[in-house]
Amino acid sequence: MSLKKSGYLFCVLFLSSINIANAVTEVDFIYIGDSEHDSLLGVKQGIDEANLQGEFLGQKYNLEIVSKEKIEEYDFSKYIAILTSLDSKQLISLAKQLNNTPVFNLTDESDDLRRNCIANILHIAPSNKMKSDALKQLEIKKPASKANAQAWHYSFVKFAARDLNKRFKKNFQVKMNDHSWAGWAAVKMTSDTVARTQITSPDDMLKYLKNELTFDGQKGSDMNFRVTGQLRQLIILVENDKIITEAPIRGIAKPPSLDSLGILECMN
Fold this sequence. Notes:
alpha/beta; Rossmann fold; three-stranded antiparallel sheet; 8 helices; globular
């Protein structure tokens, strides 16, 4: 081969390697619900953080927002996950149309929704029973308490929660709450899975999240999904807008684990 031809080949191979190195994997999310809802702010926080990480990994995360009135107009096939602030009825209807796509429930706390065990609904929001079980544990320790059970609180500082709260407040000038944490967590667990495994198809993502996920979520313990679709998680107990403890409460919870909170089995 002549020097001219070999030099040309080298240039082609070199440029091709640059193109491969610069190839970007695009990952699409869609949020369905009220555009003013706190959960959407959490979703946006998650997307921003995913894109910061993605700059180094050749990944770009996109977000589309659609109102619940326009669901029928959409082809959802390209989205790796659906993020929603829908009520139970709308959520079930949507999930049944998209049975191989993760549909994240960010807001609805219905116990019946968990007992129905719809295969592709992943509940980030804790159920009513998770919260009531947390309060029952607190009543044993502190009978006169008038605490609220929450998924998140803006003053939570342990397990790097302080940093997450600061980032969120800086970005949106409001405090992170239960719904905004849920939106962030849904995006975070999905984007971390993409970064770790290179999974980009919704059906593979659903299988991974349901069967292999371990997620910290700035709550200090590995969280994963029950057969009900509910995310196991600690519950923060708040009185007079101050955190007094978290459940499961050590020495009181039976079993002394996250499974002391909420529904563990399907209705059928």
